[in-house]
Amino acid sequence: MNDFGIVTEAGAIRFERLLPGPMERVWAYLTDADKRGKWLATGAVQPWVGGNVELHFRHADLSPHKEEIPEKYRQCENGASFTAEVTRCEPPSLLSHTWADGSEVTFELTAQGEGVLLVLTHRRLTPTEMLSVAGGWHTHLGILVDHLNDRTPQPFWSTHARLEAEYEPRIAASLSVP
């Protein structure tokens, strides 16, 4: 399985991760505020269509490795928050919700032996959003994998910067394909 996200169509990127199960455990990391806060963002989830998803990001708190925030993300120094809306919810296998910019994120979970295949698809992205979103999800998913495997999470900002640089030619190539 390739860890890099794949542009599946204009404005959509898809990631796959095989995670240690069971599904209910992984589902909790998507919907429980404290567990989700360890790898993505804290905030309550109302697990029904039309319910709210609160996302309070504190990227610098996702790892014990402290580092300076890059200048282009300095506005996130004190965190960032928004409220989204659940568009699909089928516990414990599917959760979709809007994102701050009007895009949509879908998490799909499928049991695979003792593991769980997580497929994350972010849709309705503009070309200018793709690079940051690709690096961001890749970094966040790496931190989720670390937590689920009882490892110390990687530092967020330096990992994100490295991955953005790696995604830049990949995203550019996918956007130039007719």
Question: What do you see in this structure?
Answer:
This protein is an alpha+beta fold and about 180 residues long. The chain has a single domain, classed as START domain (Alpha-D-Glucose-1,6-Bisphosphate, Chain A, domain 4), CATH 3.30.530. Helices cover about 30% and strands about 30% of the residues. The protein is built from 4 helices and 7 strands; from the N terminus they run ββααβββββαα. The protein has a 7-stranded antiparallel β-sheet, with helices on one face. Strand 5 and strand 6 form a beta hairpin. Helix 3 (about 125-150) packs across helix 4 (about 155-175).
Largest sheet: 7 strands, antiparallel
Q: Estimate what percentage of residues fall within beta strands.
A: 25-35%
User: What is the strand tally?
Assistant: 7
Order of helices and strands: EEHHEEEEEHH
Q: Judging by the overall fold, what is the CATH architecture?
A: 2-Layer Sandwich
Average per-residue pLDDT, rounded, comes to 94
The CATH C-level name is: Alpha Beta
Helix content: 25-40%
Cα radius of gyration in angstroms: 15 Å
* Overall domain count: 1
Low-confidence stretches: none
Give the strand order of the largest sheet, numbering strands 1, 2, ... along the chain.
1-2-7-6-5-4-3
Write down the overall geometry.
globular
Given the structure, what is the number of helices? 4
Q: What is the CATH topology?
A: Alpha-D-Glucose-1,6-Bisphosphate, Chain A, domain 4
What class do helices, strands and sheet pairing give? Answer: alpha+beta
- Cα end-to-end separation: 26 Å
**CATH level-4 homologous superfamily:** START domain
